[in-house]
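Why predict the complex rather than its parts? Because the way molecules touch one another can change local conformation, and only a joint prediction can capture that. The input here totals 696 residues.
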Amino acid sequence: MSLLKDAIISAIGEDARFSENYQYPSSVVFCTVPKARFADAAKTMKKAYALLAAEWASEETPWFGIFACYRWGAEYLIVKTITTMDDPTFPSLTKKFLPAYRFERQMHSLMGVIPEGHPDLRPWIKFEDWPQDAWPLRKSFDASKPMPFVKGEYKWARAEGEGVYEIPVGPVHAGIIEPGHFRFQAVGEQVINLEERLGYVHKGIEKLFESMKWEDGYRLAGRVSGDTTVAHSLAYCIALESMSGFVPSARASWLRAIFLERERIANHLGDIGAICNDAAFAFMLYQLMRLKEAMLRANAELFGHRFMMDKVIPGGVAVDIDEYGQGKILSELNMLEKDFEKLVTIYDENPSLEDRVKNTGVLSPEKARELCAVGLVARASGLNLDCRIFHPFPPYDQYDRIELGVPVLITGDVHARTWVRVQEIRESIRIIRWFIENLPEGNIIGTVALPSSEKAGFAAVEGWRGEIIYWLQSGPAGEINRCMVRDPSSVNWLGLEQALPGNIVPDFPLCNKSFNQSYSGHDL
Amino acid sequence: MIRILRQIFRTGLVTEEVRGQEESNINVVGGRLEEIIKKRFRGSLAIRQVDAGSCNGCELEIHALNNPIYNCEQFGIHFTASPRFADMLLVTGPVTRNMEIALRRTYNATPTPKLVVAIGDCGCNGGIFGKSYASVGGIDKVIPVDAYIYGCPPAPAALLNGILKAIEGKKG
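Output of the joint prediction:
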């Protein structure tokens, strides 16, 4: 029973053809519509209160497939339409769903398909010094050759008027962070517009996947965004496993969940510290970095890598945990919890910190919904979204036993994003304990059959930033034809742009840190 | 306030001595780094970190150098906000095509004499990303590199050892 499917059937009727045996897992509904009805499908989804999760294109010679993935509660529905090589146009969804604005610019830049009716087709990720006809995701593009530099200019959004000035920042920033360019239009201290320009760390990841073997892809997925290495390789593995109906052993799944929660805690600890540091409260940064370091060292000792990179592999996990390791994790969590709660009290009782983080960088619930924000950014702005609840893999599917609490706040400010992290750390500590105490016995690895030809696999995993989507497609010879990666950053960067106007320029680092989106995960 | 002070005293000093550990083969005692920085850099080595295209894994470990456990400032190492004040560039890679120009400009903005250290497997040789339309490869394809620190990502102790190797190699 799928409400989204019913909505499509009643609105599009027989024009929508539902395919069985193509898209896996079968819980994800897949339908094909004629090009002319692609926007109608989006309208229907909008009416059904669904959100746009991702939009992408794939070359299926001799045509392009255009895909839009919608999410409503626990349901995912993918709508596909086809456009030809001679006339690679399709109706833009930007007017129905705002995040399509970036998705379509990206598709236009990298695949060379044309969203008709899109208000702004400046290149995205592709820079103005690339040759105009360089579309790396097309099959005819030779990815091994360097591209020549050409002349071109990027047209920035401009504000005019007395006293308006512009501040360009980046790509090389002052801190130890990734590169990206931000352009502020400001009057006095107040920001009136922020425009992001990303793409500096575009490494051609999606193209590189197409030249890789299925069984090796998890390594690349683990390097899409280094801080989310577990969640990314996990999403890749689940998508791959779904294509052959492989189900990992209970022990493997539980270990994956333990890795995922440990990654969440470590990153949240660092983020809360860094947010406080940007509000000139360095004490918290040093205290929390100490706790984070302890976790990373335990990871190195127990699992062989500080970030557990390459530990989630197709078929299961690469490393098991013994009695000693379980005891170590439990005692470490006790220490962590004790110290963390003391620090939370200090955070909570510090009026000068409160003054900086409350009502700063507000992303209103209306805007968050309009932008289809995901993850902790969405939860801080009133959207109740979490794949661990709505699209769970074992052990998260045992709701009544885990009783996972998902914090949702509605103020959407820096404080809300910090507080969601605080609550999530508490929940993660609690559920890791539960996972360890109830860890099933068994193998940690099984053999995954390689996908047969012309199938698609899908996975949505709640990483620490939010929902990560992988969509895999096998080609006629059973090779990787397309691997679509949607990091939460692909959507949430838009949230930062929307949250900043009205704030003062010096609060930008604070706001940016509270979102802490990945550049690498976005640029791919 | 009393809670903050209490937490500070309860935590005490957590900074560790750096010993030669993990993947590095140089045997480092914390003092060694300090000694050379004192001698060659008048006690302070200013580092500018440049991400030329990494997955941000290396950045996490460079961040960790500043945490109270490693506390790299104890040896006179500090990270500056601008290449204009830097003695050394710590560059993570691979160098993407879109960052190539920015990396060159950052290098040119750094006063000579300068040191460049390539961080991580990708910074050293392009790593898993290799060479493609979007990735130029290792840092030395774009600017001269004085030392290489391998690892994916290199652990903080390996980073300190690598920095030491770089400043030991440079005379005067």
